[in-house]
Design brief:
8-stranded antiparallel β-sheet; 26% strand; 390 residues; 7 helices; 17 strands; alpha+beta
Length: 390
């Protein structure tokens, strides 16, 4: 169960790392530390459990049941080996015991025991101790403080260890009060390795998928982008742009905008609160999620600056960018941003003079080492106008 929690925590942490890279800002920032804490805490418990494996956890009830059922024995300590583990500065040791039960043949067992510093003299090789047989196979025993000079232990002879064969080792599973062993649902031995691997892998994948589940668009875009050798989608690709613009229009509530900027990883839109209103908000689309950033930094002078998103042909615009890049000998388009807005009205007699109330135009540019090249095209990518600047 603890190892299952470890893989759940690891899956959560990895899923959070993935969504932090492919998802919107803030994705995974709570899930990652939660998963790490779960994985680290359960990992520590796994290490403790591994270090203390074989240590019998005998309660007073277990000992009373063993005594009442005659599951008691006299044991001789043959060897004491430190495991290197300390719990609260107390050493964990492996005790090799030769055991003579009150009923039945003698045998050897190896018990892992937390030995308090004050109890070290009592667990020296050659010492005799009364033990309770916690399991029916006798492999799991617990040392008791019974007086071995008194009945029923007095006079019991324990054969030398060379006559008793290999020590019995505790098997996986918890021992009941009756001494029966209740094994785990999935064995921890070689036979259970396959089911364990499947279970842990499933827990890892399900936990990671659950973290990514709230970001289906970002995940879908990433899957498509991986086929193009990218981790995240290029929002300037026509199909991706169209999907993003559709999501923005749905969130905004209409398709009227004042301006829209499309870069590789973010789309920024200034749109009126309602069509015809000059009160304008700024919206962003990033990695599959639309967010309202608040009032736009620059508010339009009139509703004449607005236009419909349907007026823009994204396939035509991206084709125009690629054509211009080829003409200029530009290899990398990662820094290219498309800016869509109306031209400034230059008619001095117009009521919208000096406002962005002219035809809709799209601008983009390429920065070079010595100069920049600017392009201005129609919203369908035609009618290109080229200018240079320093």
């Amino acid at each position: 169960m603890i190892r299952l929690l470890f893989f759940v925590g690891a899956g959560m942490a990895l899923g959070a790392l993935v969504v932090s890279e492919i998802g919107p800002p803030g994705a995974g920032e709570i899930t990652f530390p939660t998963g790490m804490v779960l994985a680290i805490f359960s990992g520590i418990l796994i290490l403790i459990a591994r270090a203390t494996r074989g240590m019998p956890a005998a309660s007073t009830t277990d000992l009373d049941a063993a005594r009442s059922e005659g599951r008691m024995a006299l044991a001789r300590i043959d060897a004491v080996t430190q495991t290197g583990t300390l719990i609260n500065d107390q050493p964990v040791c492996d005790l090799d015991l030769s055991i003579q039960p009150l009923e039945g043949p003698a045998y050897r067992a190896r018990v892992r025991q937390l030995v308090r510093l004050v109890d070290i003299p009592a667990v020296q090789p050659g010492n005799l101790r009364a033990v309770a047989l916690l399991s029916a196979d006798g492999a799991e025993v617990a040392l008791t403080d019974d007086d071995v000079t008194q009945a029923p232990y007095a006079g019991i002879r324990i054969p030398p260890p060379t006559e008793l064969g290999e020590p019995r080792l505790p098997e996986p599973g918890a021992v009941t009060i009756k001494g029966r062993r209740r094994g785990p649902l999935i064995g921890i031995g070689p036979k259970g390795r396959g089911p364990r691997f499947v279970l842990f892998a499933l827990a890892f994948l399900v936990a990671g998928a659950a973290v990514a589940l709230p970001y289906p668009t970002a995940v879908a875009q990433t899957i498509t982008a991986l086929g193009q050798g990218r981790l995240t989608a290029d929002l300037r690709q026509p199909e991706t742009t169209a999907d993003a613009v559709g999501a923005l229009a749905a969130k905004i509530g209409h398709d009227r905008v004042v301006s829209i900027s499309v870069s590789e990883d973010v789309i920024v839109v200034d749109a009126p609160v309602t069509p015809g209103s000059t009160d304008t908000d700024r919206w962003e689309y990033r990695r599959g999620e639309v967010t309202r950033e608040g009032p736009a930094p620059s508010q339009p002078d009139s509703a004449a600056e607005q236009f419909s998103l349907d007026e823009v042909s994204w396939p035509g615009l991206w084709a125009a960018v690629q054509t211009a890049a080829d003409a200029e000998g530009i290899d990398s388009l990662s820094d290219v941003t498309l800016r869509v807005e109306r031209e400034i009205d230059g008619d001095t007699d117009s009521p919208t003079f000096a406002q962005h109330a002219g035809p809709v135009r799209v601008s983009f540019w390429f920065d070079g080492d010595y100069r920049s090249v600017y392009y201005d095209v129609a919203p369908d990518g035609t009618d290109p106008v080229r200018t240079e600047g320093n």
